[in-house]
């Protein structure tokens, strides 16, 4: 995960994007045979393996994944989000997310933004930036606002994910 | 006056100790049960990274070693051992080892899933718990770990969809066919983030096992959870499973509750359905894909490897032979299912026809055995046919009912079970 996505609030993340279509499922994002690892860096070497090496290399070089409808449908495997973090992806922008993927993204500190308008205006390979605090996506084609995260999700994302968030809560409790 | 509420509103009010929840509200709930399957090792390794953490309610933890089990490698054996030892050390509520079967089925058979309760699991098909009137939903492993520590988890109160099923199923047509057709019609995100309530005369007449198939497959519509209202059949099932006072927390949706979508399906005219590669919503009637060559047939998974599923398959396979060159794998859903099938002669009928019977568990559905070479095709009774899920990225998975699977195993091509059924 980039430093930008850690610490006190998520600021602006992004860069070159890779664009995929609708209903990209978890088995394509990270095949089940690799779930014997929870190390994001190791998982990243297998992310999108069913789509072939050249596509995988493009993902490894990208900062943002742009997707159509129902991104991450299928399994509850958290590695579908953490393998992207390991691959250097800082944000996923989709027309819509499958619910478990969305949870897993926030919980692993991966920015996940729903914006059909932004997706429609982004071309594969564009530079795309997500400004979480301001609630917008900046692209060549314009700036697109997205609704703010609920407060609890902002807290988790700001901490860098669910486990760092729980760790922080435990630390605060022990100091009391 | 309190507005009429859906099941999802009621159950999340109960689990969060609040009232007046509307869809879209975000609440902290206290789940009644936390299921983690073989992924428990991921939860444990994550837990161990949290300094000073302890487990809030150890009795609410249920671990089941169902995926990749028994261990095929030393690495996985190490993961299983980690879970086994952790469970003992921390006194977790229940630990089910490699002999138990698929987590969902095991927990329901053992009376650990009860109406009106909230169950989270490290498995998307946790929607299946709705078959007993519970709220089951899949989460990531970090969420299970966090819930071990805090006892709470955030949830968004979902909107609800009501699916009313009526009519009678024709010979050779099963709840699996109803769900595949529904998924084909509504697509893979047709119920994304929704609570799906199944109602109607057809559902009332269904056994608990058949209700499980409905609720399990609701996941493939993107559902957050599924639900069948508990009734006399539910309570009888639970009493047999050793649950005292099974209706204690039961919740029914109010008359007049608000649904974002209501569907009425008369299933009388339905024919057997097949989900084609590589998405569950790529569904066609069996007549359109009949004759497709198969290399393997898999009867297993939390969707369709319960006792009655094996009985359906055996009724077709008994006294016949699996087609030459075709491998038929049968993975009973649970130890109880396997025992029952052994006692009733179902297993010997399956063995005699040429099936290989594996240990109960997720088996080939989770990529554990039953892999395919490049260019091969499997017809499976599972709930997912994503590319590469069973071996080569260049292999095909078709999904259908146990009857269609059994008929196809005999012929070696996708076959309408109505042509073979007695």
Topology:
The complex is a heterodimer of chains A (176) and B (422).
Chain A: E1 12-19, H1 26-29, H2 40-44, H3 53-61, E2 64-67, H4 79-86, E3 91-94, H5 99-107, E4 111-114, H6 116-121, E5 127-131, E6 136-139, E7 142-145, H7 151-159, H8 162-175
Parallel strand pairs in A: 1-2, 2-3, 3-4
Antiparallel strand pairs in A: 1-5, 5-6, 6-7
Helix pairs in contact in A: 7-8
Chain B: H1 7-16, E1 26-29, E2 33-36, H2 40-47, E3 61-64, H3 74-90, E4 94-96, H4 103-109, E5 118-121, E6 135-138, H5 141-150, E7 153-156, E8 160-166, H6 175-186, E9 195-199, H7 201-205, H8 208-218, E10 225-228, H9 232-240, E11 261-266, E12 273-275, E13 283-285, H10 286-289, E14 296-299, H11 307-317, E15 327-330, H12 335-344, H13 346-353, E16 356-357, E17 377-380, E18 396-399, H14 402-411
Parallel strand pairs in B: 2-3, 2-5, 3-4, 5-6, 8-9, 8-11, 9-10, 14-15, 14-17, 15-16, 17-18
Antiparallel strand pairs in B: 1-7, 12-13
Describe the fold and architecture:
- The complex is a heterodimer of chains A (176) and B (422).
- Chain A has 176 residues and is an alpha/beta fold.
- Chain A has one domain: Aconitase, domain 4, CATH 3.20.19.
- Chain A has 8 helices and 7 strands; from the N terminus they run E-H-H-H-E-H-E-H-E-H-E-E-E-H-H.
- Chain A has a 7-stranded mixed beta sheet with strand order 4-3-2-1-5-6-7.
- In chain A, strand 6 and strand 7 form a beta hairpin.
- Chain B has 2 domains: 210 residues, Aconitase, domain 3, CATH 3.30.499; 146 residues, Aconitase, domain 3 (2-Layer Sandwich), CATH 3.30.499.
- Helix content of chain B is 31%, strand content 17%.
- Chain B is built from 14 helices and 18 strands.
- In chain B, the strands form 5 sheets. Chain B has a 5-stranded parallel beta sheet with strand order 4-3-2-5-6, with helices on both faces. A 5-stranded parallel beta sheet of chain B has the order 16-15-14-17-18, covered by helices on one side.
- The model of chain B has no long low-confidence stretch (mean pLDDT 97).
- The chains are: A alpha/beta (176), B alpha/beta (422).
- The interface between A and B is large, with 42 and 46 residues.
């Amino acid at each position: 995960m980039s430093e930008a996505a850690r610490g006190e609030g998520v600021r602006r993340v992004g860069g070159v994007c890779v664009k995929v279509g609708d209903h990209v499922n978890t088995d394509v994002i990270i095949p089940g045979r690799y779930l014997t690892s929870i190390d994001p860096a190791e998982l990243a070497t297998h992310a999108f393996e069913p789509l072939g090496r050249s596509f995988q290399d493009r993902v490894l070089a990208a900062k943002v994944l742009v997707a159509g409808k129902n991104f991450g449908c299928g399994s509850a495997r958290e590695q579908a989000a953490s393998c992207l973090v390991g691959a250097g992806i800082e944000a996923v922008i989709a027309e819509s997310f499958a619910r478990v993927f969305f949870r897993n993204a926030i919980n692993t500190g991966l920015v996940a933004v729903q914006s059909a308008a932004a997706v429609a205006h982004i071309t594969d390979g564009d530079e795309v930036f997500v400004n979480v605090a301001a609630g917008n996506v900046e692209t060549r084609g314009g700036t697109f606002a997205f609704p703010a995260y609920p407060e609890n999700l902002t807290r988790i994302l700001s901490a860098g994910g669910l486990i760092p968030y729980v760790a922080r809560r435990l630390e605060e409790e022990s100091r009391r | 006056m309190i507005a009429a509420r859906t099941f999802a509103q009621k159950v999340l009010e109960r689990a969060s100790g609040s009232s007046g929840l509307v869809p879209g509200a975000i609440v902290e709930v206290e789940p009644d049960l936390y299921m983690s399957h073989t992924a428990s090792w991921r939860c444990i390794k994550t837990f161990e990274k949290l300094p000073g953490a302890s487990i809030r309610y150890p009795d609410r933890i249920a671990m089941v070693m169902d995926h990749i089990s028994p261990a095929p490698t030393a690495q996985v054996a190490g993961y299983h051992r980690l879970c086994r030892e952790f469970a003992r050390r921390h006194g977790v509520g229940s630990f089910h080892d490699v002999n138990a079967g698929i987590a969902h089925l095991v927990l329901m058979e053992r009376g650990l899933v009860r109406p009106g309760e909230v169950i989270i699991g490290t498995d998307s098909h946790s929607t299946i718990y709705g078959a007993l009137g519970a709220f089951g939903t899949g989460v990531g492993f970090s969420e299970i770990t966090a819930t071990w520590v805090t006892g709470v988890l955030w949830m968004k109160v979902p909107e609800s969809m009501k699916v009313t099923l009526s009519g009678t199923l024709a010979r050779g047509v099963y709840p699996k066919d109803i769900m595949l057709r529904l998924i084909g019609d509504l697509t893979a995100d047709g119920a994304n983030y929704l609570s799906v309530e199944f109602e109607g005369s057809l559902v009332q007449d269904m056994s608990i096992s058949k209700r499980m198939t409905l609720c399990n497959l609701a996941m493939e519509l993107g559902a957050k959870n599924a639900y069948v209202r508990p009734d006399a059949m539910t309570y009888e099932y639970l009493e047999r499973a050793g649950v005292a006072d099974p209706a204690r927390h039961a919740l029914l949706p109010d008359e007049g509750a608000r649904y974002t979508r209501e569907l009425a399906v008369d299933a009388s005219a339905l024919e057997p359905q097949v989900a084609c590669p590589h998405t569950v919503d790529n569904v066609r009637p069996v007549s359109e894909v009949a004759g497709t060559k198969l290399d393997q047939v898999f009867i297993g998974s939390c969707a369709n490897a319960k006792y009655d599923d094996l009985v359906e398959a055996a009724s077709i396979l008994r006294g016949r032979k699996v087609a030459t060159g075709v491998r038929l794998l049968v993975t009973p859903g649970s130890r109880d299912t396997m025992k029952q099938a052994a006692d009733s002669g179902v297993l010997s009928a399956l063995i005699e026809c040429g099936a290989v019977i594996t240990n109960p568990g997720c088996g080939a559905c989770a990529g554990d055995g039953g892999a395919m070479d490049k260019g091969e095709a499997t017809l499976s009774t599972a709930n997912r046919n994503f590319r590469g899920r069973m071996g080569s990225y260049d292999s095909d998975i078709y999904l259908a009912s146990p009857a269609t699977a059994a008929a196809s195993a005999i012929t070696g091509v996708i076959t309408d079970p109505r042509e073979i059924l007695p």
